[in-house]
Automatic annotation (TrEMBL):
Keyword Oxidoreductase among UniProt keywords: yes
Family affiliation: Belongs to the carotenoid/retinoid oxidoreductase family.
GO molecular function list: oxidoreductase activity
Domain of life assignment: Bacteria
Domain Amine oxidase: 39-480
Keywords: Oxidoreductase
SUPFAM superfamilies per UniProt: FAD/NAD(P)-binding domain
Protein's name in the database: FAD dependent oxidoreductase
């Protein structure tokens, strides 16, 4: 049997203890309440439901997915968060987060229909580093472009492999400090930081060393892929399994407050006034946002929340990007030797750095039909505060203007595709706020992560972005890990 074909697991961690019995009685009483129907919340719900727990997932939005959701416009489906799924490993792999996910949730590899990237790059002025799902390519690129850094890069790899994921003290070290002790070329440091910050960093300017190691492994040592149908396939697969196992999913069910009894969380009050009780509560809403729900905690200072939000332009093309000379899956670009990673202070967006992604440029199976359209997506850092204050008319005009600016910035690093655009859309920090409910539309949540998921209350735990893991596989593994650690004792 393959890793994904194993019989139903029976232990919280991998598979040998008897299933947990539930004695919860009453319509509104649960073993576990999960706040948020994103990837981590749905994964936690599935894991717990396998053990006959009575589980309810609450979602204030009208749809599932959180940051990794999708919407439909003029007959087309648009992914909100997904550029690529990281932590990719090929069929049959026994190690790595993807393989463990399949075992823990009892999925088969084919359930997500993943297609690996063709190849991506990091583009700075005058230098480019290509990489794909084979770590040897990036190693060869560094040896060719930065020959004096070859041994230093090997030393860095050793530190990353040896890193302990659950050591909070090591996690919070400065990545820039550790890199400066290992890599002696400042430009190479900036180029390595660029994609890792773009795909999983809530801190401005610097990065937690632990987050750097997690993202390095997920992107450079494992790899990237995409389901042919986009994020919809993953979400539908998770929801279907959760409901098959008897889990309850309540949409339009925002949590007004988390109810406490002394030092323990005992339930929630919904915005409609309904009360639900539970032995445990897992919240994927974010640490600051979760604390605000607690009826024993005063409102936290706004500066505790993350500051980094995004705008993204979506261009529908009359031709596939490859026919225009653009064959990269993702291009992470920066227009100077110093990488810019900070909320804009003087405008709605900062177009000095960005991400160019084409969903067409993955190695889809021969049996897959070509994507209906050519697509190019451009992402830039944006200021939530400025976008939030625009009037409806100003907002519509700003979207048009910044679509043009984002594309103009990107075509400095990829072939100019503007003559082939047949339809467009653009989402902003306001969109991200609407889908995630994160303060400031912060894509990666708060800078301070809680690796063990614990809060000041017994029975209340964090999962998802602010537990420390990001990306689709990371979020799913966070939900599984926190369910195992705190709810399956």
């Amino acid at each position: 049997m393959t890793a994904s074909d194993t019989p139903p697991a029976a232990s919280p961690s991998e598979s040998t203890a008897p299933a947990l019995a539930t004695t919860i009685d009453g319509k509104n009483a649960y073993d576990t309440i999960i706040i948020g129907a994103g990837m981590s919340g749905l994964a936690a719900g599935i894991r717990l439901a396998y053990y006959d727990q009575k589980v309810c997932v609450l979602e204030r939005h009208t749809t599932i997915g959180g940051l990794n959701s999708f919407y439909r416009l003029r007959g087309r489906d648009y992914d909100v968060g997904l550029h690529a799924l990281t932590n990719f490993t090929p069929r049959g792999a026994k190690k790595g987060p993807l393989a463990r996910l399949l075992r823990q949730l009892r999925f088969q590899w084919d359930d997500f229909a993943l297609a690996p990237q063709i190849g991506s790059s990091i583009a700075f002025p005058g230098v480019q580093l290509k990489f794909n799902n084979d770590p040897a390519l990036l190693e060869a690129e560094i040896a060719a472009r930065f020959p004096h850094q070859k041994d230093h890069y090997q030393k860095l790899l050793g530190k990353i492999v040896d890193y302990d994921d659950l050591n909070q003290e090591l996690f919070e070290l400065s990545a820039r400090t550790v890199l400066a002790e290992t890599i002696t070329d400042p430009l190479l440091i900036e180029m390595l930081l660029c994609p890792l910050m773009w795909y999983g960093n809530a801190r401005e300017d610097d990065m937690d060393w632990g987050q750097f190691c997690i993202m390095f492994r997920s992107i450079f040592l494992e790899g990237m892929a995409r389901p042919h149908a986009g994020v919809r396939l993953i979400l539908k697969t998770l929801v279907k399994r959760f409901r098959e196992l008897g889990g309850q999913l309540k949409l339009r069910s925002g949590v007004k407050r988390i109810l406490t009894d002394g030092h323990r969380a005992v339930g929630v009050e919904l915005e409609n006034g309904e009360h639900l009780t539970a032995r445990n509560i897992l919240s994927s809403a974010g640490s600051v946002e979760t604390m605000r729900m607690c009826d024993d905690v005063p409102r936290l200072a706004p500066d505790k929340a993350g500051q980094l939000s995004f705008c993204e332009s979506i261009s529908i093309l009359a031709k596939e990007p490859k026919s225009l000379g653009h064959d990269r899956t993702i291009v992470f670009y920066n227009d100077s030797e110093k990488f810019h990673w900070r909320r804009p202070t003087s405008d709605l967006c900062d177009v000095r750095t960005g991400v160019v992604c084409s969903p067409n440029n993955f190695e889809y199976a021969a049996s897959d039909a070509p994507l209906a359209d050519g697509v190019v997506r451009i992402t830039a850092i944006a200021d939530f505060g400025r976008w939030q204050t625009l009037t409806p008319d100003e907002y519509r005009l700003a979207k048009l203007r910044w679509y043009d600016r984002l594309v103009a910035s990107a075509v400095r690093f990829v072939p100019d595709y503007r003559s082939q655009v047949i339809d467009t859309d653009m989402f902003t920090p306001n969109t991200i706020r609407r889908f995630t409910w994160h303060d400031n539309g912060a894509v990666y949540g708060a800078p301070q992560k809680k690796l063990d998921g614990r809060t000041h209350l017994d029975g209340l735990f964090l999962c998802g972005t602010d537990q420390g893991y990001v990306g689709i596989i990371g979020s799913i593994m966070s939900g599984i890990g926190m369910a195992n650690m705190h709810c399956l004792k």
